[in-house]
Fold this sequence. Notes:
Layout: H1 11-21, H2 25-31, H3 36-43, H4 51-55, H5 64-67, H6 91-95, H7 100-106, H8 111-118, H9 127-133, E1 159-163, E2 166-170, H10 174-180, E3 182-189, E4 196-197, E5 206-207, E6 213-216, E7 223-227, H11 230-242
Antiparallel strand pairs: 1-2, 1-7, 2-3, 3-5, 3-6, 4-5
Helix pairs in contact: 1-3, 7-8
Amino acid sequence: MNKEIPARITYAQKRLIIMIQKRELRSWCLEHNLEHASLYRIALGEKVATYKIVSSLVHLIPPAEWIYYIDEKIPYELKTVPIWDSSKNCSFILKHKTDWQEVSKKYDLPLESCRNLFVNHRAKPSLLQIRKFALDTDPIEFFTEGDFVEDTYIPERGDIVSISGKKVLVLSKQEYNIENKAILCIYIEESCKNGMKIENSEISGEINLLSLTTITYSRIMPKFIVKLDDKLVQNVLDKVVSHFK
């Protein structure tokens, strides 16, 4: 091998480089139906390993080996798992679909990135993000469903949810929502007459205080977006109630 080895490599890269030096990488790739050129470039740092690529290799290389460098000690048990379908939501993502804002603060990640990971599912975790999460989470959780069973989301007072393409602020308590399979809510619009502007939140818009309504749900379930500050929610409740006095 004539090409220079990167100054700092992961355990997974080291594994691949050894195969290159022994002239075994090509046959290994053929045996497991893998793209030789791509893994060769990843080994030499010419290409970044993506979540999709690592997911296709977890049955051969333990996930943690992609996260830690060879000058670091791996704090987790090294084990392989069945090939992971990277289009699925992994155990860690499912666990944090409602407390993703706390996750953003804890791991110092942008709110928008976390929203796309945990709420909108428009993105998949990068290895750099998994490295941050690995401070207290085994990387294997990003390539398995684990033993986590996803509960049906039940809206709570103060949640902003999306249902049938519209955003609403939930005013009813969770107990009511469970019993009636419905939410008492008001609409959030871009702008409206006498609306209350949403401030200090990750979403923008105005709360239409005159749009109080009940929405039942069964087949179409509300999708959680964000939780509003308790003080703001109480202020909304007070103003809504005042219209009935």
